[in-house]
From TrEMBL:
The protein's name in its UniProt record: Protein kinase domain-containing protein
Organism of origin: Serpula lacrymans var. lacrymans (strain S7.3)
Location of the Protein kinase domain: 16-277
InterPro entries attached to this UniProt entry: Kinase-like_dom_sf, Prot_kinase_dom
MF-aspect GO terms: ATP binding; protein kinase activity
SMART domains (UniProt xref): S_TKc (SM00220)
């Protein structure tokens, strides 16, 4: 599809009517919509091509048929690119409607393992195709949560059904595994197959802690920096925010070393991670992840419901590590 009228604007009917007047600046505008042809819920992202010149190119590259069908591809698919009337510098890309990767919360360690495996495989896939993400922090890792939800959720009020007839209900990831996706290629770069160690000037994404950027403004290889971003996301989201993930700490420490040349590449990260998984017992994988915001009453309720689910899943021989 390439025509603007192919989309029905769900909660943002004025987007295309007022888009020329929008003061985009460096801030992207993201709104939900519904595709008329099949009723699919999508996201519309407005941005300036002069500020993010590779957003479309890289997104469409990973959306080509040959790459899109590869199960290792965890880049958000680009359904369409809409032209903004009378403004060649602005474009609207159409993507699936996604949620943050940890909404709803993880239930078991096995579900987290599946998440970590998917995003590691996804980043390796990008690197093998000579693309550095350069901003792969937690905000840019999202989830196609369609399999999880009994009814469509509201895109602005995520706890409610889309028609506001009640609170939304959902399955666990073990029951209905989702797919995790990298988004936002605004500062990503694609290189030639012979450009093994490209150099780029430091560019600050959402994570301001990159050690090599603190040391100097010299051009750096962005691929080891991607490894740092991923390791730091795991450190902050699981080692710091939750308990029981000590098993991944040695790997994470190597991924976030100050010297980028000492960090493992993504092939090495995945090899070591698979070795870690083999050492985890079924009991550990099926154990409940205690979320940082659980209070005593909520924690007790989740514990009881978790054990009931756990017993049922073991009886039915459902894998402790989900497989989408």
């Amino acid at each position: 599809m390439s025509a603007v009228h192919s989309y029905s604007l769900a909660l943002a009917r004025d987007l295309l009517a007022n888009i020329v007047q929008a003061n985009c600046g460096s801030v992207e505008h993201v709104l939900d919509a519904t595709r008329i042809s099949d009723g699919a819920f999508v996201t519309l992202k407005l941005f300036k091509k002069s500020l993010h010149p590779f957003e479309i190119e890289i997104g469409q590259f990973f959306s080509t048929e040959s790459l899109l069908s590869d199960p290792a591809n965890h880049c958000v698919p680009i359904y369409d690119v809409l032209v903004v009337p009378d403004d060649e510098d602005r474009a609207i890309i159409v993507m699936p409607l996604l949620r943050f990767f940890d909404s709803p919360p993880f239930d078991t360690f096995g579900e987290v393992i599946d998440f970590l495996r998917q995003i590691s495989v996804g980043l390796r896939f990008m690197h093998k195709h000579h693309v550095a993400h350069r901003d792969c922090l937690n905000l840019n890792i999202m989830m196609d949560a369609t399999p999880l939800f009994v009814d469509p959720y509201h895109p602005q009020d995520l706890e409610m059904k889309r028609d506001y007839t009640g609170r939304v209900s959902y399955h666990t990831r073990t029951q209905r595994p989702p797919k995790y996706l990298f988004v936002d290629f605004g500062i990503s770069r694609r290189y030639g197959p012979n450009d093994i160690a490209p150099l780029e000037d430091p560019i600050w994404g959402g994570d301001k802690t990159v050690p090599e950027f603190q040391q100097s403004n010299e051009p750096r290889n962005p691929f080891p920096t991607d490894v740092y971003y991923l390791g730091n996301m795991i450190r902050n989201s699981f080692l710091v925010a939750r308990t029981g993930f000590e098993f991944v700490e040695p790997l994470v420490k190597d991924m976030v070393q100050d010297d980028p040349e000492k960090r493992p590449n993504m092939d090495e990260v995945i090899l070591r991670f698979e070795g870690i998984i083999k050492q985890l017992s079924s009991w550990k994988l099926r154990s409940r992840v205690i979320n940082e915001h659980d209070d005593n009453i909520l924690g007790f309720y989740r514990c009881v419901t978790h054990w009931a689910r756990r017993f049922s899943l073991v009886i039915r021989r459902v894998s402790a590590i989900p497989t989408p």
